[in-house]
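Researcher: We're teaching a course module on how sequence relates to structure. For the next exercise, students receive a sequence and then see the predicted structure as tokens, so they can try to spot secondary structure elements on their own. Here is the exercise chain.
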Amino acid sequence: MTYRITLADTAETFDVQPGEPLLDAAERAGFPLVHDCRFGGCGACRIKLLEGQVAYEEMPMGLSEEEEQEGYALACQAVAQSDLTISADVFPAGYIPPDYHEATIVSLEKLSHDVTHLVLSIPSASEVRFLPGQYLNIMLDDGTPRSFSMASPPRSDLFDFHIRRVPGGYFTERLNTHYQPGDTLDVELPLGAFRHDAESTNRLLMVAGGTGLAPVKSIIESLKDEPHAPHITLYWGVRRAEDLYLDELLQHWARTLPHFHYIPVLSDADPEWEGRRGFVHEAVCQDHPDLSEFDAYLCGPPPMIAAAKSNFAERGLSVERIFSDSFNFTHELNDSVA
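Model: And here is the predicted structure for the students to work with:
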């Protein structure tokens, strides 16, 4: 039997077929719910269940236990078990759908032993005002995508990326051995629901793991020079000091911007390291026993995201104010399967 889904904010309805994910049914009915990865990893399609029940074939990685207990579900994986009333974000009327463009490699620069700074020129996308935090797909010859977040805010037709080499990864290995400035790539943009909530007046807690720094940096850079810039605290977690590929820039920001604070955290530090050690989310919890006045933006591997969500919720941070992008899961690890 079919079930009737009601959008609480507008009282509009649509039907869902047995076993059909809510996101698919909503799109079929003309309701573009906000989403990203479509396989339960990023949490962008989070909805609030006001009435009714859903089930999952397998519990999605992008939904924490605390979120489920508070009545949240992921539309891309949730299957209705009854009629539902839901509260869900819909892409706004001015939403820019992704489109395909040709990009030219402007430069390839080593930032560290395994991270490359890639700059692309995309003249046809110069008017595409992507939102800081979003990403694009680089399309390979076989039509499969590799996804990478923009590492700086919109700036004419130039687009920055921090790309970590994945051992055995088809694209990232070739980036270091095959591609040169002047080569062209087919790309799709803009993509992704990870972005700053400009309506909020809360302090911002940014937590990045590895090259998950890229979209976080894009958001910070878009805000840092605003007349009424929010208070921003960035925790950047990596394994060793050599992995802090933008440490000098971030230290400079911390010295010159009164509203910006930066804490690097190493999980496998050498004995001479004098800074913070351990897991990055644990450092946040040590410094902030009460997180109720923050909005949190998390970008990194799924275990970091899951642990941070759970620990931050225990310290008073509303799950509604936690925004995440499981960067390695939805972007980097895709490269290892090619």
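Model: If you want an answer key for the exercise: The chain has eight helices and 19 strands. The chain has three domains: 3-87, 99-193, 203-327.
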